[in-house]
């Protein structure tokens, strides 16, 4: 089961976790570090070990801001945020429904909300 | 018809384990021209070589085929054995039935069949072999060393001590290179200047060494033993023969705000300057970008104060032609630019510095006279963060993919010396791995941790943000503790990756010496010929071949010198006879070969030919200089008329091999 899940995460994200040299720069750069149970470098290592279910059950996948600082700064081009996103998508697809529909948007809008946040919300909560 | 002997080697079980060697020697004995065929356990052994020698004499062999390992291993062995038995060594062919057969096959019948086919191809080639005679070319007994850093200096001294003349060409106004900018050297902490300047003085005083400072190599022609080099002596507007280095001019020059490159721009020099007190040669240089006299003709103060009358505002670049037998490349390295690493704030804060800048800040001859002060406000830093692997081991495209190799040790040195001089300072080193494999290196690093209390933290720094109050907010990983750290630092030192000097690439083109994708010069063999370029007569010294610390550089410099001495000690060189040859009757003078020749071995001549009707006609035809040609064969492929051929690897020989391989039996 976990092998199949790992395979799926790697395929969806397009990430090669073996490129990681364990420098920790992703977690050093992460602005949500304190909010997360598992940190970006742990995502990379845990995917390598096949511990996908733990990650799927962790609130960390929703704490990631998708700011992609870890992708930007990684010296090995590993792209940890893409793993987080792939795992989040797996959870969403498993539940078989969108957590956010376009119709819900108008009532949620307020003037303070940046458009970027809506895009990010769709990325996180919809298929 | 040739009389060919076939010798099939077992190579212990290396070949015999997969190839039925008896079947091979039996099958090959029926090939046309084969008068003798045998197999033996170790052909390369003394006994095996004697089998070859005896058979040449007893059977009057005119050609020999050895079915064995790659010709890279033992071709020379068998050529020498054949020569000692009176056969031209170029009548020996090797069929590689080990690397290209037994090692890559598992199934014996398949491998045996392939071995027979490879043997058959070699036999077909020997039928067309002709005896070749190696020529000779003279050796000019003088060496050129390009680059006057510690690598070039050591190589030059070693060559000169063996009695040969050496020229050093250095692009800066003084020799000494990067080592002059260093403070102390690991792992023994001697002062860099104290151990380097005596060698610089030795170079200046050595009767066999000639220093071309502020000069560059402009053009290189020729070949091993016989290089013709044009050296450009850049105008320094000071007569080197008259200047005494008194410093009167540099003290009086009114242009004061010139960034001082010796201190990496952290202080200023004048428009006329001597880089540092122990410069060799100790001669002033005028910077034409800043000198008022050269820019608008208004000043001339230095000429007035110069007691020796050495100032010459009209000086021009000079070109010197010299001949050399060998060339040593010692062009060294530079730290990379940090434009791609905005997260460390190098361009935002003066207090984020590179390790080389740190060296200057702690050096007694540096901008702060050796007191460690923050560049921004001149205060003592109390918390210093060192970041390792900045731009090294980076495959994202921002930095360099390789390990820069020297940073772990110099960072340990910096951290240790800081704690020793300023015990009230907190020193953090963020590392990915600590690489300390040299003699006494790991002990040195451990001393920094255990005796000097440097905080080594496994993890990388993600962000350095300058705060309005001058503090630097460092956000980093502590992977062992599983924490994200936030440190308020006063100074951040980046262990910046190193790269080959920018002059190396155009130089490699001039020398036709090969480079890797990082612009490091490649060696002829990674393990067995580490100080020679694949281009004959070009040798490598120091960091131009790969990142290297001082002990390794000095070792390699000596090794390169030994190779140069070995070359210069010869009066004549034996040339490789397997070179290209142009058939003048077929050549149409199109220049295709000249364009592809990487060694510049092909020139064109206008030659008179007699025509059938007794008239003469002048045609442009290719001519190969056999002493320069390395036998790569590029010209034979490029030639549209089939006029170019490679001796020992002629088109007809190769086609005969292909035919033999393709024929069905």
Structure report:
By secondary structure, chain A is an all-alpha fold. Chain A has a single domain, classed as Alpha-helical ferredoxin (Fumarate Reductase Iron-sulfur Protein, Chain B, domain 2, Orthogonal Bundle). Helices cover 57% and strands 0% of the residues of chain A. The radius of gyration of chain A is 15 Å and the shape is globular. Chain B is an alpha/beta fold and 665 residues long. Chain B folds into 5 domains: 4-128, Rossmann fold (3-Layer(aba) Sandwich), CATH 3.40.50; 142-234 and 317-332 and 501-568, FAD/NAD(P)-binding domain (3-Layer(bba) Sandwich), CATH 3.50.50.60; 248-305, no CATH class; 334-499, 3-Layer(bba) Sandwich (FAD/NAD(P)-binding domain), CATH 3.50.50.60; 580-647, Alpha-Beta Plaits (2-Layer Sandwich). Helix content of chain B is 28%, strand content 25%. In chain B, strand 22 (426-431), helix 14 (441-450) and strand 23 (455-458) form a beta-alpha-beta unit. The two termini of chain B are 22 Å apart. The chains are: A mainly alpha (127), B alpha/beta (665).
How are the SSEs ordered, and which strands pair?
The complex is a heterodimer of chains A (127) and B (665).
Chain A: H1 2-13, H2 25-29, H3 40-49, H4 52-57, H5 60-63, H6 69-73, H7 80-95, H8 105-108, H9 115-125
Chain B: E1 4-9, H1 13-16, H2 21-29, E2 34-40, H3 46-58, E3 63-68, H4 71-84, E4 92-96, H5 98-102, H6 108-128, E5 136-138, E6 142-146, H7 150-161, E7 165-169, E8 184-185, E9 190-191, H8 192-205, E10 209-212, E11 215-223, E12 226-233, H9 248-252, E13 258-259, E14 268-269, E15 272-273, E16 285-286, H10 292-296, H11 301-305, E17 318-324, E18 326-329, E19 333-335, E20 352-354, H12 355-362, E21 383-390, H13 407-421, E22 426-431, H14 441-450, E23 455-458, E24 461-466, E25 472-478, E26 483-489, E27 491-496, E28 498-500, H15 504-511, E29 538-540, H16 550-568, E30 572-574, E31 580-582, H17 592-596, E32 602-610, E33 616-624, H18 634-638, E34 644-646, H19 651-662
Parallel strand pairs in B: 1-2, 1-3, 3-4, 6-7, 6-18, 7-10, 18-29, 20-27, 21-22, 21-27, 22-23
Antiparallel strand pairs in B: 5-30, 8-9, 11-12, 12-17, 13-14, 15-16, 19-28, 24-25, 25-26, 31-34, 32-33
